[in-house]
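ZP: hey, is the flavin-adenine dinucleotide complex queued? I don't see it on the tracker
AM: it wasn't, my bad. submitting now with these inputs:
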Amino acid sequence: MIPAAFDYARAESVEHALELIGSRDDAKLLAGGHSLLPAMRLRLSRPSLVVDVGRLGELSYVRDAGASIAIGALTRHHDVATAPLLQEHNPLVSYVAGLIGDPQVRHRGTIGGSLAHGDPASDLPAVVLALDAEIDVAGTGGVRTVAAAEFFRGVFETAVGAGEMVTEVRVPKLSGDHVWSYLKFRRRAQDWATVGVAALARRNGAIAEPAIALVSMGAVPLRASAAEAAWAAGDDPGAVAANGTDPPSDTNGSAEFRRHLAGVLVRRAVEEAEGR
Ligand code: FAD
């Protein structure tokens, strides 16, 4: 389908983008366009103004920020996947960015767009949740930092308010004793996850600080806290992986299938992490 008519403006800076996005209640930012444009073509989204931030080079970077790695909101998935700083200090993020969609999607889609879109089937939201990442949200009043655990509010709903934009994501540097895995089950190579699992822990003799986050098991990415406790205790995390989840039933699978799949994938992810 063809999108409804809209005005288009290209932002020249973050300040200019905020000014433009604040000028109309239904204005939308355009980053990589790989989620917004399909939604507009289906007329699920009908902004009267599209503010193009895709060329804002000032928000495309991967930087060393001391204890963390800072990633600009407009950094493309391909650049996240291939950034040497992430490959060295947080290979979980770069590995997962490299699994998104296909090369075309990875060369256009951005980390900020992926998080701000709030799709519970997307990969990076679960990863930033497992990592306890911080997300900077800018508005005309300044920048506020939102913890990943507070960021995702519902299906396509996040902590980003009207007139605001995500500017930066900070993920921690992992240490030598961190072990991790990301597994996603999908019906075709380029599909979104039917269920995805991010698993992360420190292994120094015993497993400590376990984090397991689930994709497509509810309205938002979820921490599987019972599975985390089971992992730390040496019990079977797969047996309790679906506790507290509310997975959808759709063409990719029923809720019951997803609960089963979560158990299988959590068990495999923990095994893979421990074998790393
Ligand atoms: P856009 O489409 O430009 O924007 C998406 C939404 O976020 C819009 O509402 C926009 O206004 C808002 N937005 C964008 N940037 C910001 C910002 N900085 N601050 C505030 N709001 C902002 N994703 C996966 O996770 N896994 C997959 O396997 C996967 N496969 C895909 C396959 C295909 C064929 C396609 C088309 C997409 C796929 N995606 C997948 C989604 C892809 O990763 C998108 O690029 C991403 O979700 C959105 O990023 P974007 O930069 O394209 O955002």
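AM: back. The two ends are 46 Å apart (CA to CA).
ZP: great, adding it to the tracker
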